[in-house]
Every structure is written in structure tokens, then in C-alpha cells.
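RECORD TYPE: inverse folding
INPUT: C-alpha cells
STRUCTURE:
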């Protein structure tokens, strides 16, 4: 559900604090992870006794119903994330309520990701991200990020002005302000997740998104691969659509890693499973059983 992953360039960001010795995750492109693998390694963490999530994939062709056209207030999706099959954290994304932002009705969405005790001993992760997504257009009106990953810190608020086609970034750490040009159809890290789940996806051609992250706008292409039956250990078997998100930017993660996203082929478009191949080992994220039971 970094996050269904900000596209971050190498080095320090405005309004962020990071020790250059913070480790390889300090340079992972954050938005790409958020958009494509919401909780792969920072979310997850049932007990070790839960065992490694295992899947079985069987290619199959079937009819795919239209998705729900809007997010569902009250929906909460929780994830278990693993690295080399080992639990490393837990997290969730929730449509909490409908609010008003400058006179516009908006879904208030919050996502959190936290490392477990084992990982926190040497690389703590505590992320809280919020987005106000306009009800009528599903475009972001306000984005808020509070991020701690190792020695990296980020505290920011971004507001979107569609009359001026400008996003205004404000750092809460150093009080810097920057205006960034945006397209009319821009998404942020959370709104992109719900856009993908509520729009029909062409299984013959890639779907493109313009995603704002870290003071820039990036083009992200979601490439369809196949339809299949996905069997999740202790969860059941589900008709799925398999996608590979690809971002048009340079970075260590994108050059040397790949992401595969399994969306349920029903009207809910649930992010059932995510696989990531990285220079630091394989990562997986799986939706928990309670989230699967929601209607």
C-alpha cells in the first residue's frame, strides 16, 4: 500500500537531515518505493513464528470487473514486510475520513510504516505520511511527510494550486520554501496509490502517472505483465493482475532493482503482494488476513 514507492536524488534534500554514513537505504529513491511497494521492508512484522510468506503463481486468463470508482472511507490496509524472508516491520494505509480543504471535500488518508525491534536496533524506521485527496478529481490538495529512517529526517508540507499549476513545498526543519511547476494531472505518493486502484487499467498497454515527490515531478509507467491466480500462504488463492512499475529517473535502486506488484482482479484492486529485487537482497510485502476480509 516508500511507500504502491519520493523519487529522491542522491545526496541530501532540502529540509531533510541525513548522516552520509546512514547506510544504503539513505539513497534509495523514496517515491518509487512508496508508489510501487508500499510496505515491502519497512512494513510487515508478524512474529518470526509466522514463517516466511510463500506464494504459488498460475498464469490464467479471466474476466476482470471494473474497479470501485472511489476510495472507501474506513478502509485500512495493513501489511507484513520481509527481507530475505525475515520480518522487519509493520505498517498500514487508511482512508480515515472526508474533510474540507479550502472549501473542497477531500479524503484524508494516512499511512504509517515502522521497523520492528530487531531492525530498529541498527536502522530505525518511523514514517507518517498524510494526503488530502480531492473527492471529485482524486488529485492531491495537501501532502504531509514526517520521516525518520536511520539518521535521515524529513518534515514537510506540500500544497497544490491547480489554478497556478504550482506545488508549494515547505520544510518544517529549516523553514525553506520552494514552488515547483506541476501538470494538471499530478499525483502525490498516496493519491497515486488510490488512482491506480480506482481507474481501469489497460492490460495491453502501460499506464503513465505524473508523480510529485521531493520537489520534482516524475513520470512513472505501470507496465502490465499478465493475469494469474496467486496463492498466498494462509490467505487463499486470488485472481490477480501483475504489473511492473518503472520510473523515468536515475538512481541506484532503479538501475539495479526491479519491482513487481500483484493487484487483486476484483473491484477492490487490493495490493496483495509486492516483490522487489534490490542490490541488498530480495524484499516482499504481503497484505494481512484482516485486510483481505474487508468488503
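DESIGNED SEQUENCE:
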Amino acid at each position: 500500500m516508500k511507500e504502491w514507492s519520493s523519487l529522491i536524488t542522491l545526496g541530501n534534500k532540502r529540509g531533510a537531515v541525513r548522516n552520509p554514513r546512514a547506510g544504503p537505504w539513505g539513497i534509495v529513491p523514496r517515491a518509487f518505493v512508496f508508489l510501487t511497494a508500499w510496505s515491502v521492508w519497512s512494513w510487515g512484522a508478524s512474529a518470526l513464528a509466522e514463517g516466511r510468506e510463500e506464494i504459488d503463481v498460475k498464469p490464467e486468463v479471466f474476466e476482470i470487473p471494473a474497479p470501485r470508482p472511489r476510495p472507501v472511507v474506513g478502509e485500512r490496509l495493513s501489511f507484513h514486510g520481509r527481507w530475505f524472508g525475515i520480518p522487519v516491520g509493520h505498517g498500514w494505509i487508511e482512508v480515515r475520513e472526508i474533510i474540507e480543504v479550502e472549501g473542497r471535500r477531500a479524503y484524508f488518508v494516512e499511512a504509517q510504516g515502522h521497523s520492528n525491534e530487531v531492525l530498529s536496533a541498527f536502522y530505525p524506521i518511523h514514517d507518517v505520511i498524510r494526503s488530502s485527496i480531492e473527492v471529485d478529481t482524486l488529485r492531491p490538495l495537501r501532502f504531509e511527510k514526517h520521516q525518520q529512517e536511520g539518521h535521515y529526517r524529513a518534515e514537510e508540507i506540500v500544497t497544490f494550486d491547480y489554478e497556478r499549476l504550482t506545488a508549494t513545498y515547505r520544510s518544517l526543519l529549516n523553514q525553506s520554501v520552494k514552488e515547483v511547476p506541476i501538470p494538471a494531472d499530478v499525483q502525490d505518493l498516496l493519491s497515486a496509490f488510490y488512482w491506480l486502484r480506482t481507474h481501469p487499467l489497460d492490460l495491453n498497454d502501460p499506464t503513465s502517472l505524473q508523480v510529485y515527490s521531493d520537489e520534482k515531478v516524475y513520470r512513472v509507467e505501470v507496465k502490465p505483465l499478465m493475469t494469474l491466480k496467486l496463492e498466498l500462504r494462509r490467505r487463499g488463492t486470488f485472481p490477480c493482475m501483475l504489473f511492473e512499475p518503472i520510473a523515468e529517473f536515475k538512481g541506484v535502486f532503479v538501475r539495479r532493482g526491479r519491482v513487481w506488484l500483484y493487484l487483486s482482479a476484483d473491484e477492490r484492486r487490493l495490493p496483495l503482494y509486492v516483490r522487489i529485487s534490490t542490490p541488498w537482497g530480495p524484499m516482499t510485502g504481503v497484505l494481512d488476513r484482516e485486510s483481505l476480509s474487508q468488503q
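NOTES: The longest helix spans residues 189-198.
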